[in-house]
Amino acid sequence: MSDHQHEHDYDHSELSETELRVRALESILTEKGYVDPAALDVLIETYEKKVGPRNGARVVARAWSNPQFKAWLMRDANAAIASVGYAGRQGEHMTVVENTPERHNMVVCTLCSCYPWPVLGLPPVWYKSAPYRSRAVVDPRGVLRDFGVALPAQTEIRVWDSTSEVRYLVLPMRPAGTEGWSEEQLAELVTRDSMIGTGLPKKSDEIAR
Amino acid sequence: MNGVHDMGGMHGFGPVVPEQDEPPFHAAWERRAFALTLAMAMPGGWNLDMSRSARESLPPAEYLASSYYEIWIAALEKLMLERGLITPDEVAAGRVLHPAKKGARTLSPDDVANVLYRGAPTGREPSAPARFRIGDRVRTRNMHPATHTRLPRYVRGHVGEIELTHGCHVFADAHAAGRGEEPQWLYTVRFEGRELWGAGSDPRVSVSVDAWESYLEPA
Chain A residues with CB inside 8 Å of B96's CB? Predict the structure, then answer.
């Protein structure tokens, strides 16, 4: 209890110090004319409200519904994704990797935090953390267990370390029992983690249709 | 550089702990730190490889003890100090003490959407044919530059197979060092888990990195 309390207080004072530092920096940079605070607001709003994993879910749902779109997505991911409306920073060079019954794909950036922003938004804290970056390449099955995912032992695991400006998106397998579903319904099954490869899509009975 | 940022294969960091319904930011200052970092690239004139280099060259203990956006802010200060956009006494005082550097361009709110949509593509026209083809066996160089590189330690000196080619791309190592783009062919190289981690490794695991041509030699 006391340890926990101490840790909590420590975190709190660190946060305040950082908060003051960032605030001072913003006011210096604004006064010097290097930044326009209104532009900062637009940047924040973009990644807090507009760009996120629902984008990627729409791409995946379209690939599940439309074999021609899927073939295009696998061949020229940038063009196919742009046709759904997503492009730009941290998604300039997209490659889509497909899960099959034999092979499961998982994406990491061991060196920093490379992540396909236009389709997934900003990366979650765990993706940028030392535990994930250190273990994904040496013990991917163990990492999957941390996420509650157990794959058959014979399933091949393919890990993609994002060391260049190429960004990887996992195309998960379409869940059983979803024949005839609309793209909008299918998109509801697609989780962020299923597009990173640390999770699987929801099952057909996990959502209300 | 052989820094603590190069974490692939390290032990002891514990389990991955996902957060349910995680928000994009966890504090108001994280929003501002994120946006300041993106917005300052225009007046600052640095590229993304320089930003990464600044982050990973923080002192190792500081890097490991800092949260993600604390690293961003520390690196942003470093980049600005190096270029004289701000000065150490201004950082200490928390206010402006010297005139702004002349000629710096400012990101306007109206430009944000376009700048994000354009991004910063790194593909370039090749000036020479590719040295390797899909299926070729290659060995990554046993190299240890003290400066920025994108070849992680855990794959150095190992044999893998070219799985994808991506055309020519701006070479991160040169770009981070301010040497210009020096575009090179870029490949995805796949390694068997056992090649990287030894006989005890799961035989059904393989790992790839994206590697510029100069990282590779024929195997």
Answer: 28, 31-32
